[in-house]
Write a structure and sequence with these properties.
The chain is of the alpha/beta class. It has 2 domains: 3-87, Methionine synthase domain (Methyltransferase, Methionine Synthase (B12-binding Domains), Chain A, domain 1, Orthogonal Bundle); 94-224, 3-Layer(aba) Sandwich (Rossmann fold), CATH 3.40.50.280. The chain has helices at residues 3-19, 23-35, 40-60, 66-83, 89-92, 112-123, 137-147, 159-175, 190-195, 205-224; strands at 99-104, 127-130, 151-155, 180-184, 200-202. Helix 9 links the parallel strand 4 (180-184) and strand 5. It is globular.
Length: 225
């Protein structure tokens, strides 16, 4: 079997293992990635994270529910434990230096989506400050000032709580215009996020990480100029 064919087989095994919440399958595939000398970061992003994206879709389609989601996350962590020590700093690029604050806004207790995004940020090498759910709006501002994080990611799953995001964006930008703010959650659209003054918007966990990396590189450019 060629190296490319082997790589594709192992990426699929990692992804399937997460979707099937089969920790043993994930551990076995992750260990083979290391033994065969394949790229650990690629295995995380195109194997584990890709599987978690499928899980997100299954959850949206109500084929999976909270218990399944949590089992899938356990399988992802099992693979991450094996692969993470082998990720090289040069694979992470800018992400390795990034900090992100994440939380679900006040009045909203939905945190499954937030937890998956948090996991994706960790996978991508960010330092994550997780404020949890039902977070008072001022707390996002205080925490950003305390940690000097480049990215603040807000999540809301209800139309009523979504409006709080606009206030947070205004409060943070007033104190620190250079922070990149990303919004996510079911009731949001790209237009709403732009209307609220956000810098990024994500409708899925994988996109959230890509968006954040783009936002951090934009910020770094701005700091240089």
């Amino acid at each position: 079997m060629s190296e490319e064919a082997l790589k594709q087989e192992l990426l699929k095994a990692l992804s399937d293992g997460v979707v099937e919440y089969d920790e043993d399958k994930v551990r076995e595939a992750a260990q083979r990635v290391i033994d065969e000398g394949l790229n650990a970061y690629e295995a995380v992003m195109n194997g584990l994270a890709a599987g978690m994206e499928i899980v997100g879709k299954l959850y949206d389609d109500q084929e999976y529910f909270v218990p399944e989601m949590l089992l899938c996350a356990d399988a992802l962590y099992a693979g991450l434990d094996i692969l993470k020590p082998h990720i090289r700093p040069e694979d992470l690029g800018d992400a390795a230096k990034g900090q992100v604050i994440i939380g679900t806004v006040q009045g909203d207790v939905h945190d499954i989506g937030k937890n998956i995004i948090k996991l994706m940020f960790e996978v991508a090498g960010f330092t994550v400050h997780d404020l949890g759910r039902d977070v008072p709006l001022e707390k996002f501002v205080e925490e950003q000032l305390r940690t000097d994080s480049e990215v603040v990611a807000l999540s809301a799953m209800m139309t009523t709580t979504m409006m709080g995001m606009k206030k947070v964006v205004e409060m943070i930008k007033a104190k620190n215009p250079n922070v990149a703010i990303m919004l996510g959650g079911a009731p949001l659209t790209k237009d709403t996020a732009e209307l609220f003054g956000a810098d990024g918007y994500a409708d899925s966990a994988g996109n959230a990480v890509q968006e954040a990396i783009k936002m951090i590189s934009r910020l770094r450019e701005m700091k240089k100029s």
